């Protein structure tokens, strides 16, 4: 009897030990079962269930050409904006390291001490850092930055973004060539990094220094001038950065305009919202089709489509602007509102109405567009800074943005397409 009891105890003990081992092998930190067998890339005991995410490296490039000196003469909003933004990034714990550079015709490493970098941000420091400070070949500057913007790196570029053709050059041809060069550089970058996202923010600051026109003739000015902060990187990394370090909290005078662009032709989650008109949901595809649509008391056929646009990193102003949408059926009118709170799976509601009842395959495209402010802030002459509001503008700016835009829209000029079947 004692012998049988001993056998029983040994069996129970072995069973418990085996159970613990199996549970440990099958479940990771989050309790999810691991995959084994021929579909596994590695043996189970070498693959962690939840591999730690690798924090991106952030490289910061401050243009130090001669036209930038006026932004760093004294305690300016330029300095406040750059210092506050980089400091917020540092304490956000989003990156493993921040590397600082000056850039013009060359990339000049500075180290990673943000405080020291800002304290020495002045015209004299700009001069002694070297490089060709007389003209700005923005196409080559961006090319140098893009070459260092690899998969797990974010690049931040701060510049006045003024083109400098130089004395006795054909300025118009120069701007066109720059646009083509910028398009080529970004197209090549997208070929290697298809998830790349560009965010461009326009800010302004006191400027006390010399303005150089397109002929390199200088004029002493003391006024506010626009400058730009670019963020370039993989969409996932950029999204996390924008979430943790919000541009709305940047010091100085704050962000005045912005432009975000990424690859289009993406699939999003969307669905017709019941109860937004007199219709029934299609039995074949209730998310994307309606049947037996009828007019309401106002003589309108109405329905709403819930859509999740969060993956595009576009602000609410862009997403609610009907000019950024294209409908293939002109009998329908569109308005855009935020999705009801009860539907937190979606970000926006596309509300549609028509005077006509008819079968239709309705297409709604969210277009990739250049915002109007780009044209408004562009100085097309680049000669007299005190004429035609040029003091508040940037010479040739739209050519720069057009180059970026053309690279991102070579294959498709819409972010996504929503398709709805009506009475079919």
What does this structure look like?
The protein has 424 residues and is α+β, with helices and mostly antiparallel strands. It has 2 domains: 57-264 and 369-408, no CATH class; 270-367, no CATH class. The protein contains 10 helices and 18 strands. The chain has helices at 2-26, 77-91, 114-119, 123-128, 138-148, 171-192, 235-244, 316-320, 372-376, 397-408; strands spanning 57-63, 97-103, 107-111, 153-159, 196-212, 218-234, 257-262, 270-273, 278-281, 289-294, 301-307, 325-327, 332-338, 348-354, 360-367, 378-379, 394-395, 414-422. A 7-stranded mixed beta sheet has the order 3-2-1-4-6-5-7, sandwiched between helices. A 5-stranded mixed beta sheet has the order 9-10-18-15-12, with no helix packed on it. β1 (57-63), α2 (77-91) and β2 form a beta-alpha-beta unit. The longest helix has 25 residues, at 2-26. The protein is elongated, with a radius of gyration of 28 Å. Mean pLDDT is 87; it is low at 17-51.
């Amino acid at each position: 009897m004692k012998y049988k009891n001993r056998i029983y105890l040994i069996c129970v003990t072995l069973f418990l030990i085996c159970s613990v081992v199996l549970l440990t092998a099958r479940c990771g930190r989050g309790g999810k079962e691991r995959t084994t067998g021929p579909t596994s890339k590695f043996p189970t005991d070498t693959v962690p269930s939840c591999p730690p995410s690798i924090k991106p490296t952030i490289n910061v490039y401050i243009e130090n050409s001669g036209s930038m000196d006026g932004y760093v003469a004294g305690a300016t909003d330029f300095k406040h904006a750059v210092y506050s933004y980089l400091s917020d990034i540092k304490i956000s714990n989003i990156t493993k390291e921040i590397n600082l550079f000056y850039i013009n015709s060359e990339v000049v490493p500075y180290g990673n001490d943000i405080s020291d970098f800002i304290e020495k941000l002045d015209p004299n420091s700009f001069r002694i850092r070297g490089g060709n400070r007389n003209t700005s070949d923005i196409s080559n500057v961006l090319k140098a930055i893009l070459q260092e913007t690899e998969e797990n790196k974010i690049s931040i570029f701060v510049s006045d973004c003024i083109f400098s053709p130089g004395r006795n050059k054909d300025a118009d041809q120069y701007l066109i060539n720059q646009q083509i060069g910028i398009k080529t550089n970004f197209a090549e970058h997208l070929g290697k990094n298809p998830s790349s996202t560009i965010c461009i923010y326009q800010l302004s600051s006191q400027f006390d220094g010399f303005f150089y026109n397109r002929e390199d003739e200088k004029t002493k000015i003391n006024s506010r001038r626009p400058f730009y902060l670019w963020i370039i990187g993989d969409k996932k990394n950029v999204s996390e950065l924008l979430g943790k370090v919000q541009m709305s909290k940047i010091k100085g005078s704050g962000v005045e305009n912005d432009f975000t662009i990424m690859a289009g032709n993406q699939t999003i989650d969307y669905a017709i919202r019941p109860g937004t008109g007199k219709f029934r949901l299609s039995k074949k595809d209730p998310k994307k089709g309606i049947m037996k649509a009828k007019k309401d008391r106002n003589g309108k056929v109405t329905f709403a489509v819930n859509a999740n646009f969060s993956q595009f990193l576009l602000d609410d102003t862009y997403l609610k602007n009907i000019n950024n949408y294209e409908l293939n059926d002109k009998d329908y009118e569109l308005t855009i509102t935020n999705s009801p709170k009860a539907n937190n799976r979606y970000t926006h509601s596309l509300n549609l109405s028509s005077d006509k009842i008819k079968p239709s395959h309705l297409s709604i495209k969210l277009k990739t567009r250049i915002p109007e402010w780009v044209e408004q802030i562009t100085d097309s002459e680049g000669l007299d800074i005190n004429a035609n509001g040029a003091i508040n503008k940037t010479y040739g700016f739209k050519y720069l943005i057009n180059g970026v835009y053309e690279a991102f829209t070579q294959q498709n000029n819409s972010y996504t397409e929503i398709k709805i079947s009506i009475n079919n």
